[in-house]
Amino acid sequence: MSELNAVTPAWVRVRLRTAPGAAAALALLVALTACVAAAFPRALDRYENAGLAQAVERATPPRTTLTVYAQVPDASDQQREQALLPSTLGRQHTKILGTIPRPLVADPGQSSYGVVNGTDLPVPDRWIPRPSGLPAKIRLVAPSGLAEHSSLRAGRMPRATGRVTASSPDVEAAVSAATAKSLHIEVGSVIHVPAVAGPALAVRVTGIVTPREPDGAYWSTAPLLRTPALVQVPSDEPEPPMYWLGALLLPSEAAPALLGTVGTPMRYWQVAPETRSLQAHDLEGLKSAVANLKSGPGLVQVRAATAPTTQVDTDLDDILISYGRLSSDITPLVAVAAFGSGTVAAVVLLMAGGLAADRRRFELTLLRARGASLPGLAGRLLAETAVVAVPAGALGLGAALLAVPEGRLGYAVLAAAAVTAVACAALPVRAVVAHRAVRVHGPREDTASVRPSQRRTVAELTLLLIAAGAVEALRRYGVSGPSEDAGASGGSGDQLVFLAPVLVGVIAALLLVRLYPLPLRWLMRPAGRLRGAVGHLSLARAGRTAVPAMLPLLALLTALTTAAFGGSVLAGVAGARDQAALLAVGAEARVEGTEALPAGLSDRVRRTPGVRELAEVSTDYLAKAGTDLTRVPLAGVDPASYASLARSTGLGAFPERQLRRPADGSRDPLPALASPSIAETFGKQPFNVMLGDGTDVTVRIVTVRDRTPAVIGTSFLVVDRAGLSRETARTNTLLLTGGHPDAGALRRTVGESASVHLRSEERAQYVDSPLQSGAERVYAVAVAAGAGYAVLALLLALLRTAPERAALLARLRTMGLTRAQGRRLLVLESLPQALLAAAGGALTGWATVLLLSPGIDLTAIALPSTTVVTDGSALRTDPLSLALPAAAVLLLTVGIAVSQAWWTGRKGSVRELRAGDAR
Asked: Which of 177, 655, 677, 683 is the most buried (most CB within 10 A)?
């Protein structure tokens, strides 16, 4: 029957008219999955590009600008003067810009060139302020584009009258408004700059300017152009002498005048990078481009355009390397979320195809029995699926491009195409595998009676070995893999490590599928003795579930494991920030003064909203311990309140009695709580501590703790302040605990007498890169996607069996089954798989976090690079991410079963068929 093997539009139209609901569901599934898949790489590009741009902007132009320096050529006076003219420097500037290798892009608007004194020149004019009696120094600069980058506040722009040479007696200049204010310069002021020979060069100020973009590279690469500096002279005196240093901005045509001064003139070209053009995926190319200009072929080209001794200076390469380290720490963690979510999506798409093939099993069996070939059958199914999936995938791609307008297009198209291809291939492949042989009817494959084949056993054991290897690799090497010098993850071994969480879920799902028949078999015999038929019938129905219907269990467990792992990562990030903020503050809030706090302040602070407990501390940072007078911070505390504080914060809890001074007032040494470093130095023998007020006490270490709330750091002594002198025992620090202390009220209460440091404010400062916030959003999406796909898998499975359950209820109602019994039947029939998926998902998620936590370090996502790493950055389980998706699965299962029973009971056909109804 060759006509059955032909793929015709008529077949597709008939199928779409026959099952419009299934087609719409497939289209929605493909569109949503393609949208998320296409949006992910573009969102990742956006976060990475924003992080790189922020890193460069924070570094400021003095570090990021490429500054090219060249000495004045050793030639005749006329040639030297010609070399400093803007026409010559401008041509060289154009050539330098032409040597900038891609992907590094210069910003011509912020790039500049000119001439500057290599040596700052002291000026004799006494009307310029002299804070320590030293004469001010001046730097002469002849920059290009001064008028375009500044606005006149007073006077006019300087001009070069006639031809300026090294022997010119005077020139005009402008100064910034900040320079004019600090150096008392006005329009018309004349500043005399020492000359090589003859009288000093007279520089007349004709204008005061303000920068149009003060933070741009033009003005900020050399901040002296806009802001004068008060320079300290190195000295052993308590107050080193200082002098003012400012810049005079000459017109570029007057640059030859610098040859006549005693300051060595230098030519310079400043190349500002275009921040908006920096792309994180070009990071290696950017580093190579900068290295090329600093010490490679690019430097040779720059020297060919300028002078043989030209040097290129910048810290941009260090900034790129630092950003690369942060990116290489965060990217593997993001990859774990991406691989997990991608696997869950693929499993659900495959499950949808498998369920569709199972739903049409009799139709496809009939077609094969009537002579349809496997290629013809696969072609028909591929055509009808592609008609729905391809437009849906294109729609999802378009939605992703609109939602995330930035980022590379190619990866988004590939992701959407992969989703569409999987959706198109799932049904034909499953149908071909299931209908390889032509048969009139297939064997019964009940879950409770079927025995797994040897091929399935071998496949599962192979997958188990792969998962065990991935878990072991992740635990041993972490998510970045064993090769630390690789710079970034991406090898096949790393990809296997990234799949470790989802592989654990897959193995757990396969194990539960094998174990699922056992409790059903155990319950069959006791259920048969029950008087009611509902329990026995529901177990029989659950045990006769066809094997292909076990696919939802695999999808459910994989999705729930991914959601649990993502939630645990977010919980670990939050925990790491909380712990780091606690270590930085010591409590929920810290009130600390340089001197003793005013009397009564403690009582007023105690009444501030949000404050539950308060511990008074007397901190002496000038204390010196032992015979060698080692500086050690000493905190005097009240043992009762401080022990309570240490317990509530979890920072070095200790029994109150260990720190309390002997009650008999004896001269015994004060018991002390010490850090490990202090304990190792002084041991448990008494030693003397000289306090900041000149008195001394004898202490003996009785307790050692790594941290303590009173002192920020890992070196400290804590004693009962009742044993200290009256001066040292005065309170200068308050440590507050409570839910959320009111920051405004607390600062109003404290006033100017002390500083206020809140844990909540410290925690809010820890996200310092879009890379970190982007990684958090990726994991939040992974949690939502895992929970969503779990619900979707359950819905697909329940909708697949809905007609069968409706028919069952209709038949049973004719035999007297009541509505209540129908509801119980559907609920009890659905519960075994739902309970297995919910409990298995929660247990698998917990086991995954437990297994993988040694290899997951969340410091890169949670904390800035400057923050001290703590053990709070470990992966930890999140009860909500374990319980909520599992509970949602159970509630949705029961809700759908009850809803279907109610809806089926309202249908007229059921009322006509029923034989009786006990109301």
From this structure: 177
